[in-house]
Amino acid sequence: MNKSVLDYILRVRLPITIFIIIASFTLTYFASRGVDRGIGYSPIQPINFSHKLHAGEMRIDCEYCHTGVEKSRNAMVPAVSTCMNCHSIARKDQPEIKKLRNYYFKDIALLWVRVHKVPDFVYFNHSVHVNSGIKCESCHGDVRQMDRITQVHSFEMSACLDCHRHPRQHLPYLKNVKHGPDNCFACHR
Ligand code: HEC
Ligand code: HEC
Ligand code: HEC
Ligand code: HEC
Ligand code: HEC
Question: What is the mean pLDDT of residues 104-132?
Answer without folding.
Answer: 96
